[in-house]
Amino acid sequence: PITLALGMCLPAECNPSDFDSTKGTIASIMTQIAKSFGDKDSEIDTTILPEYVRFVNPPQAKVDFGVYGAGFFLTLLWIVAFVGLSIIVQIMESYGLSDANKETWLSNFSMSRNMNMLLEDSRKDAEDLKVLDGIRVLAIAWIVCAHVFFTAQDTPITNPGGISSFLLEYSKAFVYNATFSVDVFFFMSGFLLAYILLKKFMRGQSKISWLLYVHRIIRLYPALLFTLLFFCFILPAMGSGPMYFRIYEKVTNYCGQMWWKVLLFIENFRKYEVRCIDWTWYISSDFQFFLLSPFLILLYMRYKKTAVFVLLAAILGSFGTTIAISLQYNIWAAQPKFNKEFDVEYYVKPYCRLPTYLMGIAVGFLYYEFKESNGGILGGLNKLLIRNTAARVLFYIIGATGLYWDIHIMYFINKNAKYTSRPVDMSYLILGRPMFILFLVIFLWPAMIGKGRLHKMLLGNRAMYVLGKLTYGVYMYHLLIMEFFKYTEKKAQYFDFTTLVPQFWSYWVLGYFAATFSFLFIEQPIFNFEKKLLPDTRPKLKPEQQLDEETKQILHDPKKNPQFITIS
Q1: Residues 6 or more apart in contact with residue 557 via CB below 8 angstroms
Q2: What is residue 218's predicted lDDT score, i.e. its pLDDT?
Q3: Which residues contact 446 (CB under 8 A, 6 or more apart)?
Q4: Beta strands in 218-336, from DSSP E residues, in sequence order
Q5: Which of 170, 212, 273, 467 has its CA 20 to 30 A from that of 310?
Q6: Is the model's pLDDT at 8 over the cut of 70?
Q7: What value does the mean pLDDT take over residues 267-293?
Q8: Can you give the pTM of this predicted structure?
Q9: CA-CA distances (angstroms) from residue 71 to 222, 260, 400?
Q10: Taking Cα atoms as reference points, which of 347, 344, 182 lies closest to residue 269?
Q11: Average pLDDT, whole number, for the chain?
């Protein structure tokens, strides 16, 4: 449901209960307002019932100025110290007082060195996976697009009916159904983890090292902690406006209760009313998947059939859990029927979002088998795709068509929200995301096995690689920027596609600026320290394995071996 709110300035002596007798009148007035803004041809019910009318006082911020002052000072000190050290080191390098190539603790802050880390192309051993960089960039752009749309509904707009009309436009389905973009990241996370770990396990690392989890935490924590501190202690002091109380409300009433859940990666287990930096639910879910995935991958290395059975059972169990939850909380895929339980009980819960991650692991298994055994389970199909252009074109057509229709089915579900049967709606709720990933894999598979020159040119170029490195930062920071500008608006905005487009480009560009700053001054210096302080977890190859690796590189490199005819 879309929430309508009216604000009134009343004497302090008044209580919300004093107005209970006016609920019927208020409901009637707001229904007329909603109908006047709505689409006459819309199937969406704009009737407001008296029992849904609530009178509440605005939340009163209870600020502990001692804690706030300390947090503000420490956050600012972090920024100034890291940026200041980076500038000092860069000046020293410019005057020959320091060598960027020499390993010292100061060199970790070198701007030139960290910029080289950002621009350096280290994909030499993953030539066929370059297309994933472009998919990562497109997916984060899609996420920004989704947040521009959904955040607009949380701020004053002059035409509330424009939202209901927007949901019923066929050409806008890629906007209001943009939540599939998150599943793309779940898929890629599972795929890369499975493929990389299988290579490590097969090369001699037969057990799961605790350093694997330490590295993951260090990779996530700098941007996560910086976002939390900036949101809690810097953002409240940056702006003002009639809607800026939302920032204070989240910081004082919610983050005080939720900050530890964010840092422990359990933010997705929360109540609807208590939301701090709520977009970190994805980080929590992904980390929870990561905790158990290495054991499944290790099981696959030793007992393949058992691992496949466990994987399929987990996917089916997730489907069953989603069915049970949707029935219990009356959750529908149709967006006009959204309720608060859709978000808190389904959308952010790991046991409902698990299938696309496990599909990534399954594809990682298939891809590893292809690379290591010249075909694997799909050997015949892979050979056909390698040799036959028509087969590859067919894959592209099936994949692109499937992606298109899987997104646009939501239009028909929204348009017929009143009449769509429960089984049909639930089928899309359960299968819509996995089917999207399936069609994405079909579309990308020819490029992943060595073909697809156009794919690699468009999605695997150097620019996509650099932008792809920054996607985590863009995800963490773009909503900070978005909330600042949205809540400092002094007047209501007109909701329309033409107003959303420039907002999207602005937040996308600003998100990349923030991510670049974070990479150079916040994240990469910490990663540099990690490399020096933690031991190398890469397994050391035995002499005979090293020979095999060198032989494989020669045999599979057409420049070194003109008789190269196999692909693995």
Answers
A1: 564
A2: 94
A3: 385, 392, 395, 396, 452, 455
A4: none
A5: 212
A6: no
A7: 88
A8: 0.85
A9: 16, 15, 49
A10: 344
A11: 83
How much helix, strand and coil, in percent to the nearest 5, is found in the chain? 70, 0, 25
User: What is the rounded CA–CA span in Å between residue 292 and residue 284?
Assistant: 13
C-alpha 542/C-alpha 539 separation (Å) is 9
- 398 C-beta neighbours (distance < 10 Å), count: 13
Asked if residue 464 has pLDDT above 90, the reply is: yes
Query: In the 8-state DSSP scheme, what is residue 234?
Result: I
- In 191-324, which ranges are E strands? none
To which H or E segment does residue 418 belong?
none
Is 448 within 8 Å of 385 (Cβ atoms)? no
The first and second tokens of residue 183, run together, are 């599943």
* Cβ pair 203, 45 in contact under 8 A: no
Tell me what percent of the residues of the chain surpass a pLDDT of 70.
Answer: 81
Which residues make beta-bridge pairs with 493? Answer: 157
- In the predicted structure, residue 537 carries a pLDDT above the cut 90: no
Query: Which residue, among 233, 128, 226, has the nearest Cα to 472 in the 3D structure?
Result: 226
DSSP-assigned letter for residue 284: H
pLDDT of residue 370: 87
Residue pair 189/472 in contact (Cβ under 8 Å)? The answer is: no
Closest C-alpha to 39, from 174, 170, 168, 172: 168
Predicted confidence (pLDDT) per residue in 124-174, tens digit: 667 788 899 999 999 999 999 999 988 887 777 877 777 778 888 888 888
Yes or no: say if 267 and 258 are a contact pair by the CB < 8 Å rule.
Answer: yes
CA angle (254 as vertex; 248, 260 as ends), nearest 5: 125
Residue range 261-285: mean pLDDT, rounded: 86
DSSP per residue, 515-557: HHHHIIIIIHHHHHHHHHHSPP-SPPPPHHHHHHHHHHHHHT-
Find out whether 386 and 451 touch, Cβ atoms under 8 Å.
Answer: yes
Lowest mean pLDDT among 100-114, 289-303, 316-330: 100-114
The pairs formed by 197-203 with CB atoms below 8 angstroms and a separation of 24 or more are 197/294, 197/297, 197/298, 198/297, 198/300, 198/301, 198/364, 198/365, 198/368, 199/368, 200/538, 200/539, 201/297, 201/298, 201/301, 202/301, 202/372, 203/539, 203/541, 203/545
φ/ψ region of 58 (left if φ > 0, alpha if ψ in -120 to 50, else beta) reads beta
Confirm if 75 and 234 have CB atoms less than 8 A apart: yes
Task: Report, as an integer, the average pLDDT of 220-245.
Answer: 89
Which residues, in sequence order, are CB contacts of 59 under 8 Å at separation 6+? Answer: 245, 249, 252, 253
Q: Residue 73 class from Cβ within 10 Å (0-12 exposed, 13-18 middle, 19+ buried)? A: exposed
Q: Give 157's strand partners.
A: 493
Let me know the angle formed at the C-alpha of 280 by 276 and 284, rounded to the nearest 5 degrees.
120
Is the alpha carbon torsion for 485, 487, 488, 493 positive or negative? positive
